[in-house]
Every structure is written in C-alpha cells, then in structure tokens.
Specification:
Elements: E1 14-20, E2 24-30, E3 36-42, H1 52-60, E4 74-81, H2 83-89, E5 96-101, H3 107-110, E6 132-136, E7 139-140, E8 146-148, H4 153-164, E9 169-173, H5 182-194, E10 198-201, H6 202-205, H7 211-239, E11 250-254, E12 260-262, H8 274-289, E13 295-300, E14 305-310, E15 316-317, E16 320-322, E17 325-327, E18 331-332, E19 335-337, E20 343-348, E21 351-358, H9 376-382, H10 405-419, H11 423-445, E22 457-461, H12 465-476, E23 480-483, H13 490-497, E24 501-511, H14 514-536, E25 545-555, E26 562-565, H15 570-585, E27 594-605, E28 621-622, E29 627-633, E30 636-644, E31 652-655, E32 658-661, E33 666-669, E34 673-677, E35 683-687, H16 703-727, H17 731-734, E36 739-745, E37 750-754, H18 764-775, E38 784-787, E39 799-807, E40 814-823, E41 852-856, E42 859-860, H19 862-870, H20 879-907, H21 909-931, E43 937-942, E44 948-956, E45 961-965, H22 981-996, E46 1010-1013, H23 1029-1046, E47 1059-1063, E48 1068-1071, E49 1080-1081, E50 1087-1088, H24 1106-1112, E51 1115-1122, E52 1138-1144, E53 1148-1153, E54 1174-1178, E55 1184-1186, E56 1190-1195, ...
Parallel strand pairs: 1-4, 4-11, 5-6, 5-9, 9-10, 13-22, 22-23, 28-31, 30-32, 45-46
Antiparallel strand pairs: 1-2, 2-3, 7-8, 11-12, 13-14, 14-19, 15-18, 16-17, 20-21, 23-35, 24-27, 25-26, 25-27, 29-30, 31-34, 32-33, 34-35, 36-37, 36-40, 38-39, 38-41, 39-40, 41-42, 43-44, 44-45, 47-48, 47-53, 49-50, 51-52, 52-57, 53-56, 54-55, 54-57
Helix pairs in contact: 2-7, 4-5, 8-13, 9-10, 9-11, 10-11, 11-12, 11-16, 16-20, 16-21, 20-21, 21-22, 22-23
Length: 1212
Amino acid sequence: MGHHAGNGQTTRRWDFWIDRGGTFTDVIGRAPDGQLTAMKLLSENPGVYDDAAIEGIRRMLQLSPGAAIPPGRVGTVRMGTTVATNALLERKGDRTLLLITKGFRDALRIAYQDRPDIFAKEIILPEQLYERVVEVEERVRTDGTVERALDPASVAGALAQARQDGIDAVAIVLMHAWTFPEHEKMLVEAARAAGFGQISASHEVSPLIKLVGRGDTTVVDAYLTPILSRYVARVAGALSATPPDQPGPTLQFMMSSGGLTAADRFKGRDAILSGPAGGVVGMARTGQLAGHDHVIGFDMGGTSTDVAHFDGTFERAFETQVAGVRMRAPMLRVHTVAAGGGSILHAEPGRFRVGPDSAGAHPGPACYRHGGPLTVTDANVMLGKLNPEFFPAIFGPEQDQPLDRDTVAARFGEIAEAEGKSAEEVAEGFLQIAVENMANAIKKISVQRGHDVTRYLLNAFGGAGGQHACLVADALGMTSVLIHPLSGLLSAYGIGLARVTEARQQGLEVELQEAELQGIEASLTRLTGEVRAALAAQGVAEEAIGLTRRLHLRYAGTDTALPVLWDGDMARAREQFETAHLSEFGFTDPDAPLLVEASEIEGVAAEPAAEPEPSGTLAEGEAEAETRVPVFSGGKWHDAAVVKREAMAPGRTVTGPALIIEANQTVVVEPGWRAGVTARDHILMTRVEAAARQRAAGTEADPVLLEVFNNLFMNIAEQMGVALQKTARSVNIKERLDFSCAVFDSQGALVANAPHMPVHLGSMDRSVETVIRLNEGHIRPGDVYALNAPYNGGTHLPDITVVTPVFDAQGKEILFWVASRGHHADVGGIAPGSMTPRATRVDEEGVLIDNFKLVEDGRFREGPLRELLTDHPYPCRNPDQNVADLKAQVAANARGVAELRHMIEGFGLDVVQAYMGHVQDNAAAEVSRVIGRLSDGAYEYPTDTGQVIKVKVTVDRERGEATVDFTGTSPAMENNFNAPAPVTRAAVLYVFRVMVEAPIPMNAGCLRPVRIVVPEGCMLAPRYPAAVVAGNVETSQHVTNALFGALGAIANSQGTMNNLTFGNERHQYYETICSGSPAGWMNDGTGFAGTDGVHVHMTNSRLTDPEILELRYPVVLDAFGIDAGSGGKGTWCAGDGTTRRIRFLEKMDLAILSSHREIAPRGIGTGGPGRVGRTEIHRADGTVEVLAAADQTHVDEGDSVVIVTPTAGGCG
C-alpha cells in the first residue's frame, strides 16, 4: 500500500474510522503513536460545517475551522455511510430509466403480487425507483435459445429521448441475463453511445437467478451510485485522497457485506447496510477479543434496534428486503426492530403498546423539554436508571437545563391513576414490553434458526444498549453481557477492524456431478481472476490475498441454498451441506440430487500485524462508588451505587443494582448482576444469582403482560411458520407461502396464528375441535393427527391440517394444541393440481383424509399414509412430495410444542393458561368497540353460476354485538362453488378484523361478539358429498365482497383468485393471479383509491419468479402487465387489473377456476363497476378459444393461455 503499511506503524500519520449515521457521525482517530480518540458530531449542522466527517478529522488534527487538511498527516480513512440508505428511504436517488424485456414492463412493480399488510383496507406498496420503462424487443429462453434477436438500433431513439429529458442513469434487466448476458452487453454499448453517465446491467450487478430480485438490485444500483459517487468525490477532494498504490491519503468505504473497498469502487448495491455492517464487524471482533466466538450483537439507538448473530463466521444473506426493495446481493444478516430509546408508549385501555412510532430527535422524549410524548427513555428516567444529575444538561431553550423528571413523573402518574398502579410500576411495565420486543427480534435470528442463545455473549452497543442489556439478556436466559469502552461508537470501531474484501458470484443452476465439474471449476477460475485483479487495483499485494472458494448448494426442487467451502471434493461438499442442512432445517435427504445454485470467490486482504487492543494489568477489588441513588427494578426500589467509568480500572467490579456513568451512555447493572472490567478494559457483566422466575405474575389480566403474551404467542406461531417454510419441499409452501400455523387452548380455541392466507384464519380451530371430539380419551403423547375432510373440520382437499397435542410433564393432561395447514400441490382427483373445475362430488377432487393418525407414539406412520394417498380411484400423483410436506408440518408443530413448554417453565402453567384466555377477551373487546360504530346493512351478491349470496348485518350498538345472517342464500348446486361452513367463518373473521383498522391479535375472541347464521343446505353450508374446491378460493371472495358491501365500506374486489393449474405426468403447477384492489371508505369517512396489480382479501399467495417458472416448467411467460385505466371509476378509482400470457413448450392439461366472467364486480356509493374477466386459449395455428369461468382443456406445444382478470369497483 505504497509507503504506509496497512497497520499504520510506519510513518507519522493519523488513521480515521468514521461512521456517518443519520443523526450522528462517529469519528475515531488513531494517532501515530497508536492512541485512539473518539468524537461524536451532528451529521447535519448547517452554518457550522459542510461535512461532519471532514470536520471530525479537522478537529482531531487540531486545525482551524474550514482549514485545508494537509495530506501528509493522513494515512487511511475508512468510512461507513447511511447516505445511500437514507436516499433510498426518502426516495431521493437519481432519475433512472429501466430497459427490460418486452412483456415485463410491470414485472418489478407487481413483483410477487403479495401485499405487505394483509388486513389493510388501503394497500400501500413501496414507490418504484425508476422514472420510465422502455420495453426491449428481445427474448432468450432459459436454455439459451434466442427467440427474438436484439437489434440495438431499436432502442437508440428511446435512449436519446431519455438523455434529452435529463435522465442520466439507466438500469438494464433482461430475462435470463444472469447466464446469457450477450443482449445486455449490447445494450450497455448502446447506452454508452447515447451518453449515459451511470449504466447498471443486471449480469454485472447481480449475476444470480430471479428476475425480480436481480432487477430491483440493478435499479437500486443505477439509482444510488451517482449520489454515492458525488459524496465520495467530495470527501476524496477534501482529503486530497489518492489511489491506494500512490503516496497520499487512501479512502476506503464499508460495504453491506462487511468488507472494505476502495472509494472509486463503491457502488449503490453495496451501500445499503454500509453503516450497520460496521457494527456487526465491531461486535464480532470485540466479542472475539473478549474470548467469545458465539456473540449476539444488540445495537439499540434512538428509533430502532439492530440485532445480529455471529458464531465464528459472518452470516450473509443473498436475498433481503430493504425499504420495499428486494436486494439480490451479499449482505450481512442484520435484523431491525422498531424499538429504540425514542419509541412512543401507548397506554390503550386494558393493553399497553410500545412503538413502532418514534419521537425522533424533535420533539424527542418528554424529558427533553420539547413537549414530546412519553418514550422508553422516559420510562428509564422514571425508574431512576437515567438520572438527570449524571446526564449532560443540554436541554431547554438555552440548552443548559437537565433532563425534566417532573414532567415525566406527572405524565406516568396520570396513566397510573387510571390503572390503579404506581407510576413506577407503569413505567417498568412499558419497559418490559420494549425488552420483550427486542428479545423476540433476537429469537428470530437465533432460536428460530436452531441456535441455543443461552450459550452466547450479548454484545451491547449503541446509545441506549447499556440501559437495557441486562434485561434483554434475562429475557433470553443469557448470562453474560459485554460493553466495549467504545460501545457508543462501535460501528466506527468495527470499520477500523474490517478488512479489504472483494467477492464475486455467478449463478450456475447445474447438478453437482462429475460431468459438471469442469464448468464449475471454469467459473471459479474466472471469478478468481476478477477478484485478484480487483484487489491488486486496491493496492493489496499478491501474497497478502486470502481466497475462499464456495459453492451455494440446494436440494433439487427446493429453494434455499446453503454455502459450503469447495476444495474439489464432491463427497466432502455433500457432507458439509448435509450437516448445515440438518442444523438449519432439521432434516436431510441423502437420495436427492444436489444443485449448484451459484459459485462464489471471496478475496480478503491479510490481517494487519498490530495487536488491535493491548492488555493492561489487573488491580482487583470493588470499584469506589461516587454516591448512591434510588433505582426501581423488579417491582421495588433499590439503593444503587453510582460509579464513574474512570473509577472502573481493569480488575475492578461493582455488584448490581448500580449505574456506571460513561461519557456517552449510562450502563445499568441490574440486581443479580455483577459488572467487572477485564484486562482489555471491557466491561463484562455476568449473572451472579439465578434469575428469579417470573412467578410473581398473577393470573388477573394485566395490561403489560397482555401485550407481552400477545407477542410471545404470536412469536411461537411465527417460529412454527419459519420451520415449516424451511423444511417443506413443495413450491406452494416454500415460495408461494400458502400455509398457516397456529396455537390453540385445550378446548381448541385459536389463541394466535401467523397468517399468510386469510382464508385459513377462522377455520383451523374447527380442524382441532374435530380431532379433540373424535379421539377423546385415546390421545397419547407422541400422537399427531392429519385431516382435510371438508365436512369434518377441513376446507378443501389440497389444504391438509396437521394437529399436535401439548401434554403436561407427566404425559397425563392435554394443556394446549398446535396445528399447521399447508396447500399441497396435488392430492389426486380428476385433474393435476387437484383444483378441478369439473368435479361435482368431493371424491372426484382427490383423497379424503379424515382424522388420520399420522404419528403414533413418536413414530411417523409412512406405510399406512402412502396407502391412504394411493389407494383411491384418483390417487395422488406425487406421494413422495405429500409425505415430505407432511413431515415438515409435523416438525413445525414440534417446534411450537417446544416453545410452549419453554414458556410454561418461565411463567408457570396457571399464568400461561390464564393469558390464553385474556388475549381472547382483549380481542373480543376490540371487535365490540368497532361494532359499536357500525350500522345495519344488507347486500345481495349474484354470481356467475346463477346463485346469489344474501347477507344481512344487524348491529346491537349498546352491547357491541352483531348478527351476520345469510338466510336467503341460494341452495348448493351440482358444481364445486359450495363453501364448507369454516370458509364463511374465515371470511367473517377477516372482514371484522379489517374493520378494526388497528393491529389487534387474531384469535377466537375476534368472533365472540359476532353471531353467524348460515341455513343448512345452502351453498355456504353444503351437505356431503357436494364438491367444494372452488368454495375455498372463489366463494370465500364473494362472501367477503358481500359483507363489505353490507357494511358500506369497500367496493367489490375482483371476486376471484383466477386459479390456474396446468400439468402432465412430470410437472404440476398452480398459481393465482392478482388484479387491482377496490376503492372504499375508512371508518372516519375518508375515501381511498385502489392499488394496481396486488392480491386482495382471502388470498395473499406469492407468484413464482418468471425465471424460476421457466427453469422448472416447460413454459414461456410472454407477458404479465397492468392494464392502465381498467379499474372501476369513481371519485376514488379501483386499482387496475392485469393480463398474463403463458406459452406451452409441451403438451399439458390446463384448468381455470374463476368468477366474474359474466357479471362485473360492482362499485360502492356512486362508484362504477369494474370489467369482466376472460380466459382464452390462443392455439399455435392462430385460432382463439374462450374458456368458461370454470373449465379445463388440453394444450399443445406452441399454444398459449391468456388470462384477463376482472377488476374491482370504484367508490364515490
């Protein structure tokens, strides 16, 4: 690195490590003699300085304000910056043009068609980053066949026009360019010729399969790189920085992947986590210095908390969502929750909540003397953990006042009076909720992924980390906490400890076998050359480069790849993969072929020789306390020692309760903990008394514990969902997320569920109740049941529910139940995919599973199960997959059982059982409150089949109860639009939950204030053996529309899911297709417009990525786009619908199950109707056939199916 070696030990120069955050910029300077100095500055301080980073360097070099920085005094400057992240969040990047394959102009906008909040009336999707799209006449297939050759001249006009209009950045994203980039390369040349300053091509930015992720990443790169380049140039200019191989200051930037790169190579796609990445490196490296290889990072700031997991290697994700953008680039795994010092406390009747909204810097917490709301910080002031005497006096108009404890005490006093508690108890309650929220975030990155968190060190940093570290550790059963002397600036310190890295990936999608080894090695060799060249250009000497070769492997037919080290030995790679797969997913499949998804080379510059932190000598003994102050903890006041950090020399200890006062933060040592200072000057806190069990919790409903238990129950259901998604084999469960998991009380009433599919919501408890009723007295520990019977607790045959009892420790009494339901790709029947439009009897739809014992005494009954799946006139087409998915459901349930047991250990059985009741009571009260604002209404909803759904809603406002009466609905007919009773319940539950317009837990309590009347024998309560498959997917949407109509709230949605299935002996595929969402009114009377191209109401399943679809199935997706102006009109228009066109490359059977092909969905008020939908087959010979709403047909090679979705109604 020229004349200053990387370890800064040669010439008399300063090195600087800088983290430029949104609020503060942290600067650490290493003087020529190795001493470290730290400084915090406001990131924006107009009129005082232009740039905080440069100002920090000036101050450390003791230069006068505005003076130039002498280049001779600066060695290396390393920076992490949130410039890119903030530009992304605020949508302030550069104007960008997107060039994309013809037929895909809306591919990134529709993405996977799911909505972020399934209970939102008004669906809000992230704004797209590109300003205009140009469709390019070209098409390459997944095998490299060029269907339409590209003529670069065809886009010249559009490129010239965009340049003329002032657009300087272009993103180029073509189908399958991750492996066939020739067309993109031609477009790069064309864009260069047209004079674009920023050109991002997807095969360079992210050469990995998945059009949507790679496309988004490429757009982000084009959108943000110009902003970064301008910022980098400004800093480089002020420093007079030079390239690494020349004398003069060197400037490096931190990437999202945790490595450093030269300033001129810093790109938009690498900058999203530039700031937090420093924190992850800092927490891992300081944890290792403290002697721990297993570390959880806990970075708590003002508005949010970042948590990360480290077990000796950094964890990277190749698919992350940031600010509504899907990133397909290597990033350190950081999980963020909206809980920080500034999170606002909400005292709602009967239930307290914390966040997610924050008081920000202005007005800030109530104690800041700006008239702000009560926040987590104020709770700590109330409890004496933040003491105004030991906090800088920088508040008030003159910025010379201490924190305002009086206002805080008065505000907590008001809540306390209403609740009949003391102000301290209220404050501590809120703190407990915030701590549990953060602990749940840590569970998501550790426990949920199979790591035993109790063996880890909690490394706490960030401005508010020290106040909460002991409490968070206790909530997770962790017993040691590290607080580094630079914990307030650990991100900057981590940037100083990071190393220069370069990584390259290349998607391969080939099988791991002898025949492919040559190609695999060739890709690694090419990537190695690129990485070496890139590091050499950054001044890293050849011998100082360490290379790591990895392959990303996955089982054929699954979607989750795991990285393994590659040394050319296939058996060893397989063994590594199976070990990792077993620990992450809980199973292996030794017979399945392994696919190489991508190859990767990571090059790292060697570690500097200097020891980063010297060790001092220990002077043991108790630290001297300055004074003692009262602190409220664990429900009572304690006398706590106050110790200045300076008095804590290495070897000194202080036993809690105590406050350690540092320059930038307060560390709270809770009762039962002891803090000591190690030889490296780190504070290490350890639990010295076993944590008291939370037995003190009574069984009476308490507003704090209510929220804690709501979140804990929900967390268990979510953990089950993660386990199921990871261990399942089928695309439906893994990628389309067509599943739900839930927790029930001993009677089978729903306590919490992690909903992906609203249609599963209110109907799973019927499955559990059925199992309880049919097996009473015969259920033993280790038994698990399965069912899909529509007339006995199920909905339709593809949805199989697996139910597991939770016994007490003696194995005598059933305490709770857990269940998971998944949509299986095929359960037999007369059409592949089991979504047959022509069935009139339920046995034509597939295999009926009625209360089948799936596991007996801990043994999976595979033989009898296979017999059940195949011994049928229309048997399952792929029983191996059904068996694998059912095993995954059993494993997900086992996860839920283990977590419930864990909860009983922590709180005691009586408390857990009491709160299972309380959370239901709370939901019932919330729904009653909404019902009190509703009016009576009625609605008639005619359907394409000639049947009519009639509903009348009668409201008793006094009692907060409603009756939903479907009397007058048409009788069941010989079709399959009959909906079993649980489907109607699910629709009613969903509608009332949407009407609440606030986050409340979904459980059985929601339906307590609602009486549902469904006449026996009508289409909503059919009799065996009527066929029901469309009832679940179509009729459920009709019932939902009818209810929103009766309540006068929302116009009709498209009223269908457009269920398309196609298949043959080798392939079966199922998808649902979105239209736009309907317009309507909020409860306060404000109207809202619909959203284009997004799933609504009873479904939210994801679409398979276009490139994955074509890789796995013999089809070509020719077009999928939004039809402008197609939504219903009104003062508030509905969202626009879509048209999807798929061409077949093999003979297939095809089926469509849909509605609103005759009757258009209606508007509300004076709003107009939407359009009717259409399904057409375009034969290869040019003839066009129109299919009925529910129809099936055969397609040949070259035929296409075109689905035009119906659209929702307007509102006025």
